[in-house]
Amino acid sequence: MNPVLVVVAAGTGVAGAVLLYLASPQQSWRAAGPWPARARGWPGGLCVPVSLLALLQLLGALAAVFTWLTLLMLVWSVMPFAGAWRARHRKRANR
Predict the structure, then answer these.
(1) What backbone phi and psi angles, to 5 degrees, belong to 25?
(2) What letter would DSSP give residue 2?
(3) Apex 78 CA angle, 72 and 84, nearest 5
(4) What is residue 89's predicted lDDT score, i.e. its pLDDT?
(5) Chain segment 31-89, per-residue pLDDT in tens
(6) Which residue has the higher pLDDT, 70 or 92?
(7) What is the rounded distance in angstroms from the CA atom of residue 27 to the CA atom of residue 11?
(8) Exposed (0-12), middle (13-18) or buried (19+): which is 37, by Cβ within 10 Å?
(9) N or C: which end of the chain has fewer CB within 10 A?
(10) Residues 41, 20: contact at Cβ < 8 Å?
């Protein structure tokens, strides 16, 4: 297993999932709301397939897709809670 491809796959997967989450209109991570509508999904939409391509070089097809989807689901499960924690922390700091 190539350690560089592992880092590329994990890094672009996490970055893509975070960017797609931040593009959502219902996200609570950014106080200013979601990104502008024109460039909303492009950065994350480019990072996520790069992650899958790197995983396909490392693993078999089924294992790569499973690992990729698990990584994306993990990030998308943690981000709402992290956003709520950050919003709560922001309110305390403004007092």
Answers:
(1) -70, -20
(2) -
(3) 140
(4) 72
(5) 666 667 677 778 888 999 999 999 999 999 999 999 999 999 999 999 888 878 877 77
(6) 70
(7) 21
(8) exposed
(9) C
(10) yes
